[in-house]
Specification:
Layout (H helix, E strand, L loop, with lengths): L1 E2 L7 E2 L15 E3 L6 E2 L12 E3 L49 E3 L23 E3 L8 H22 L10
Parallel strand pairs: 1-3, 2-4, 3-5, 6-7
Length: 171
């Protein structure tokens, strides 16, 4: 199932009360210009989703990105590098269980308003490239994110010991 066009569909949001029964059949999503925002759990549980085009989405007014891509188990490509995250206060579980996502560039994200980041990258077992150098470590949200990064670093150390990872730089 490929979703490539909508008619006057200005926003995408899913909540636990929203039916997710059809979501496992979605394999790719290209959002048209008529979509002006996405919110928490927008792509939650799209278990067959390998690609979603959100690179040029205006995210400047989004405040909650919790679980946005959670349980997108086979997502292999995602460009969020240009997103404006300056107003986001929660990124909890945002990429949880993106099991095969190999890389993610969030280096330009402004997380100064974000206070909830726990389990943001939990169970991202194939994530080998993650640039977070612009994240302010003094922020309160980083305290909860540290638990997630701890899991990621332990996973990388284990993979390196097993000869499955080449960790060259951690700063």
């Amino acid at each position: 199932l490929l979703i490539s066009s909508f008619v006057a569909f200005p926003a995408i949001e899913a909540t636990p009360s929203t039916s997710t029964a059809a979501r496992p059949a979605i394999t790719a999503i290209t959002l048209p210009k008529s979509v002006t925002t996405i919110e928490k759990q927008a792509f939650y549980s799209c278990k067959s989703l390998t690609y979603v085009d959100v690179a040029d989405l205006d995210t400047s007014n989004i405040t909650n990105m919790s679980g946005m891509f959670s349980s997108c188990n086979v997502l292999t490509e995602l460009d969020v590098s240009k997103w404006d995250t300056s107003k986001v206060n929660s990124m909890q579980l945002m990429f949880q269980e993106c099991l095969v996502l190999p890389s993610l560039d969030v280096s330009n994200w402004d997380t100064s308003s974000c206070t909830v980041m726990n389990h943001m990258f939990y169970s991202c077992g194939q994530l080998t490239e993650l640039d977070i150098h612009a994240t302010d470590p003094s922020r309160e949200g980083m305290k909860s994110l540290a638990f997630t990064y701890g899991h990621l670093f332990r996973m990388l150390v284990k993979a390196k010991k097993e000869g499955k990872a080449n960790v060259t730089n951690v700063t």
